[in-house]
Write a structure and sequence with these properties.
Layout (H helix, E strand, L loop, with lengths): L21 H18 L6 H14 L7 H14 L7 H25 L3 H10 L23 H7 L7 H15 L13 H13 L2 H5 L3 H47 L8 H14 L5 H8 L4 H14 L1 H29 L2 E2 L6 H12 L26 H4 E3 L5 E3 L1 H17 L4 E2 L20 H7 L6 H22 L6 E3 L7 E3 L11 H12 L2 E2 H12 L16 H16 L4 H5 L7 H10 L3 H18 L2 H4 L5 E10 L8 E3 L4 E11 L4 E7 L5 H10 L9 E4 L6 H10 L2 E4 L9 E3 L15 E4 L2 H6 L1 H13 L4 H5 L9 H23 L1 H24 L12 H30 L2 H4 L4 H6 L8 E2 L45
Parallel strand pairs: 7-16, 8-12, 12-13, 14-15
Antiparallel strand pairs: 1-4, 2-3, 5-6, 8-10, 9-10, 10-11
Length: about 950
């Protein structure tokens, strides 16, 4: 009987163990029959195969479209039915048949929900004669290009923030809605299936789409349009937010530039006031020119400058800005914003913000009222908070008859500003959006039914009082320890001072490693200067990480070895930022068109992410515990700014880095292996990115702690990480200003040595009231019913959400616990610094690897930018993986192992590149391998999957990809 394997449908016997003579084959079959009879199993008959196919099509393939996962379910079903697993080739055929049957059933169901008019419009999108067809095969061509005018326009990515982009996106949305798709078309289809159809429709050209049966064709097109409608809606919301911000920012900049030449700051205002008072009292009968002007240095000119400074900084300046803002809105941006109100539907679940919704309705109703200055006297004008403050005097004006009127254009500006503020914290949401949808949809809908399970998964008590008592007790214990040990902490001083109560002396430097340079030199001596492409190739061949890469469209006619080579070259092209055109000129025999075809059809973001995860897991498995110690549970995370093309919505200006670009947020474990990467914009929440990476890295590592730079010290970050059960360990910026909260009210003398740094007590009653809601939001983060950023967007200072206030209190308690521990423990301070140093080293490696185009991402497409990040991560992970094996080969020898001191072992890292050549011509030879003995290559597939070809071993006994 064929043995079961941890890998679906694979046997791990030596490659030649199943090569036998005909006589021995009969004996083997006899023995297998005896084993089957003893265990109660039977061979898989044709009828069994048909039943298995039907089962998979009905129960599995409707929700799971990945062949390897369907194969896992097939083997599990065989075990349950006491059926001997079919051969690998037969398994593949059963899986393919099940996937095909499920797809036919699903597409028939979806197409039956469409009206005849909708089907006709969908088919017309790819009709013959409306585009320049591309019948190119794997060799290249323009497959997946713009296609016909309407479909090509719908596929296009948005441009930068401008009125033109806004109008273009509105036209796209109207074109999608004109097809008339039902809103609940895919309501019972698994999101993974919808995502797969959408990716397939995006890469297939109109000519290929026309070859599909009508149900499949219209389903693919409907999926693409359905998803694009949500994406375009999100884009329009982001354009609205950015445009309203731009109107205000440019108005302030314009007014400032007008006033800056006349502006001169007047110093010594207190002295001027004293001299004026003294002169006035001394000579009360004199004139201003005789008494006041001479009393001030500079005389009349200084006083004029003082008056001008007040006016430019005070209400007059604000009114000038508001007037300029109104003119900018009226003369340019109003056309696009008003049209947005026609295509987007805004709603709010909070009655507090209904006046803003009503204000937008009023604006839309009078959008075509011409040059009317005021709203009619009988019109009810909704009043909202944004109309107060600096805007109050501008929104209202006294008419000719002494009546207080509302200025229409100013009211529109204020309404859009209020809308922007409430959209950002999702107090107002948009119908039909995804990112900006109803925030209630972000929460798990079955939370009440699975309450006990959700609490258990988060390891939290059902009783709020128990949670509060645990948190308070831990807070009390840490403050007590810090207070009691203060006299022995030579590096810490807490006292009343203007600069801040806490004074923390930096830790002394650790001993420097002495022998690591010799170890790195030995690496270069044994293996020479290794091209980066060979490091990637070695990692791929040893981990088998390309085995699961399949075509987005589900087919594919490329030979596995050809596909592997092209994938390697494309990953290298993106990861080094040199581009496919430059890599195609190397010595490998693959053309630029062939590489671009593989990029479109095979290397999706999901595939690249899976490759990086598999290399990371292989690195964890290959590590020697004698050399590297036990596996760590802590990661460091931080963002890196990368310049990028700016004709898109995602690229933004970053004030700290002084340029336009994007942020890459990395998670790196303590031995320099990157376990997660994200592409975020410059204004995105880095706390959300930190939580996302720690929760969803996808590797076998169990993350229990996260080192961060100063962005991680936010109280909301401490609150959510406490609920999610991992420790937030930030580097505290301006620790001298940090305040410690009291665990109990009414005990002013409880911690006498900490008194200068203490502030008010924690409001435990608020935590207890909102405990269940906080758990619900934490469950949403854990189960990914919405992105972490979407959930935390509600928890901003602009929001009045009650759960936000409670989460802040939890965060303040947890931050107090951390700071007390941080001040007390020198080892924790060093641990955080070491973790963040690893992060800095990782950034240095990235700058060496991604050397192309001056480090700038030369694309406006979000998917291209994301693929650059993922391929860069793959290259760095491959470098760490191979370096780990090299170091283990060297340090496994006694003479080298005995050389290492404790300082050397502390500083030992596999992230170094002195022996690596990332530049030069790209030459790829799959037969040339590195001589490494630290690990083995996964065994080959069985004989029926290699078409009878004998695998050829290389000089190290390692097998190339089949």
């Amino acid at each position: 009987m064929r043995p079961w394997s941890s890998s679906p449908g694979r046997c791990r016997f030596p490659p030649r163990s199943w090569i036998y003579t005909t006589g021995r084959a009969c004996t083997v079959e006899y023995h297998r029959a005896q084993v089957r009879g003893h265990l109660g199993f039977r061979e898989c008959s044709v009828a069994d195969a048909e039943k298995l196919t039907a089962y998979l099509a009905e129960r599995v393939a409707h929700k799971e479209r990945r062949p390897e996962q369907v194969r896992v379910e097939l083997l599990a079903r065989c075990r349950a039915e006491s059926i001997e697993p079919p051969t690998l080739g037969r398994c593949d055929r059963i899986v393919a048949a099940a996937l095909r049957a499920a797809e036919e059933s699903l597409t028939a169901r979806i197409s039956s929900r469409l009206t005849a008019e909708s089907i006709e419009r969908l088919v017309a999108l790819v009709a013959v004669g409306t585009d320049q067809d591309d019948e190119a095969g794997p060799g290249g061509g323009t497959e997946g290009g713009d296609g016909p005018p309407v479909l090509g326009k719908i596929k296009e990515a948005p441009g930068n923030v401008s009125l033109e982009t806004m109008l273009t996106e509105i036209d796209k949305l109207l074109a999608v809605r004109a097809v008339g798709l039902p809103p609940d078309l895919f309501i019972d289809v698994a999101p993974k299936v919808v995502a797969g159809w959408r990716a397939r429709a995006a890469v297939e050209s109109p000519s290929h789409l026309r070859t599909h049966p009508v149900p499949l064709r219209v389903t693919l097109l409907a999926t693409l349009l359905h998803e694009r409608e949500r994406e375009i809606t999100d884009t329009l919301v982001e354009l609205l937010i950015s445009t309203v911000h731009r109107i205000g920012a440019r108005a302030e900049k314009k007014v400032t530039e007008q006033l800056i030449n006349a502006f001169k700051k007047v110093s010594g205002k207190e002295n001027i006031l004293f001299k004026l008072a003294e002169a006035s009292i001394g000579t009360p009968e004199g004139t201003v020119r005789q008494v006041v002007f001479p009393a001030v240095s500079g005389g009349e000119a200084t006083l004029r400058e003082l008056v001008h400074e007040y006016k430019t900084r005070g209400p007059v300046y604000r009114r000038t800005v508001q007037t300029t803002l109104k003119a900018s809105y009226t003369n340019h941006y109003r056309r696009g914003l008003i049209k947005l109100l026609e295509v987007l539907e805004f709603r709010s679940s909070n009655h507090t913000h209904q006046p803003v919704i009503e204000a937008l309705a009023l604006v839309a109703r009078y959008a075509s009222a011409g040059n009317t200055t005021y709203y009619p006297l009988g019109e009810t004008v909704p009043v909202h908070k944004a109309m107060g403050g600096d805007w109050a005097e501008v929104v209202h004006r006294t008419g000719k008859r002494g009546r207080r009127r509302v200025v229409r254009m100013v009211y529109e500006v204020v309404a859009f500003q209020a809308l922007r503020d409430q959209l950002k914290c999702k107090e107002i949401w948009v119908v039909g959006a995804d990112k900006w949808r109803n925030p209630d949809e972000d929460l798990p809908q079955d939370f009440e039914a699975r309450r006990a399970e959700n609490y258990r998964e988060l390891r939290k008590p059902l009783d709020a009082a128990v949670f509060v008592d645990e948190l308070r007790a831990q807070m009390t214990a840490e403050l007590t320890l810090l207070n009691d040990r203060m006299p022995k902490l030579s590096w810490l001083d807490i006292a009343e001072r203007k600069s801040g109560a806490i004074r923390l002396t930096a830790a002394e430097a650790q001993p420097e490693p002495r022998n690591l340079r010799r170890v790195k030199g030995e690496v270069a001596r044994r293996w020479g200067i290794v091209p980066l492409i060979d490091m990637l190739k070695e990692a791929v061949l040893r981990t088998g990480c390309l085995d699961a890469v399949t075509s987005v469209s589900g087919g594919g006619s490329l030979l596995p070895e050809v596909l592997a080579e092209r994938l390697l070259l494309v990953i290298y092209a993106y990861g080094t930022n040199t581009g496919i055109k430059a890599v195609a000129s190397g010595g490998h025999g693959h053309t630029e068109d062939e590489l671009r075809y593989v990029r479109r059809r095979y290397l999706s973001a999901e595939a690249a992410r899976a490759i990086a995860i598999q290399i990371a897991n292989a690195t964890f498995a290959a590590r020697s515990t004698e050399l590297w110690g036990q596996g760590s549970t802590a990661v460091a995370s931080d963002s890196t700014h990368v310049r990028a093309y700016d004709q898109n919505l995602f690229t933004e200006w970053h004030s700290r880095y002084g340029g336009r670009g994007v942020l890459i947020y990395w998670h790196v474990e303590k031995k320099s292996l990157t376990i997660h990467s994200q592409l975020i914009n410059c204004t995105a929440s880095e706390v959300a990115a930190m939580i996302e990476g720690a929760m969803r890295h996808g590797t076998t590592m169990d993350v229990e702690a996260n080192y961060t730079d100063s962005h991680g010290q936010s109280e909301i970050g401490f609150g959510i990480t406490r609920l999610l059960n991992f420790d937030l360990l930030p580097r505290i910026k301006r620790i001298n200003k940090v305040k410690l909260y009291r665990p109990v009210a009414g005990e002013a003398d409880a911690y006498p040595r900490l008194t200068p740094a203490l502030t008010r007590p924690i409001r435990w009653e608020l935590i207890a009231q909102q405990y269940d809601q906080m758990i619900k939001y934490a469950t949403a983060t854990r189960t990914r019913t919405a992105s972490t950023e979407a959930i935390l967007r509600r928890f901003t200072r602009n929001a009045s959400h009650p759960t936000y206030a409670a989460m802040l209190e939890v965060g303040r308690a947890q931050k107090t616990i951390f700071v007390a521990r941080y001040l007390r423990m020198r080892d924790l301070q060093r641990e955080i610094d070491e973790g963040l140093n690893v992060m800095e080293s990782s950034n240095g490696a990235n700058s060496v690897i991604a050397y192309g185009k001056g480090g700038e991402i030369a694309s406006n497409r979000r998917d291209e930018q994301e693929l650059f990040v993922l391929c860069l991560r793959i290259l760095q992970s491959a470098l760490v993986y191979v370096n780990t094996l090299m170091l283990q080969d060297i340090l496994g020898e006694p003479e080298w192992a005995d050389l290492l001191t404790p300082a050397d072992r502390r500083g030992l890292t596999p992230l170094f590149w002195s022996h690596v050549r990332p530049y030069g011509e790209v030459n790829l030879d799959m037969a040339v391998r590195l001589s490494l003995a630290a690990t083995t290559v996964p065994g080959p597939r069985a004989a029926e999957e290699t078409d009878g070809r004998e695998p050829v071993e290389d000089r190290q006994g390692m097998l190339p990809l089949p």
